[in-house]
Amino acid sequence: xxxxxxxxxxxxxxxxxxxxxxxxxxxxxxxxxxxxxxxxxxxxxxxxxxxxxxxxxxxxxxxxxxxxxxxxxxxxxxxxxxxxxxxxxxxxxxxxxxxxxxxxxxxxxxxxx
Length: 113
What we know:
Elements: H1 2-46, H2 49-61, H3 66-75, H4 83-95, H5 101-108
Helix pairs in contact: 2-3, 2-4
């Protein structure tokens, strides 16, 4: 029993020391992630081509036209509305026509084989 108690006492000393170092490291991690997160969100908000293509397909399945779906994707923040962003979205759709059949057909006026 004394052996177990001494092991518990040593464990609590280690945990106490770990806790002393854990809090400042956690604060540093939070501050670092906040800074990196802002930059990532700013970059991600510009043009999320795959998500925009997915939402275009979903909206067209719900009965919207291509132009209405484009407006909705811009309003939802998946695209900034620039030509470069729509070019990236079209690239995603062209790479995976079977994943986005309605949008692909509307954009390229082709039928799937």
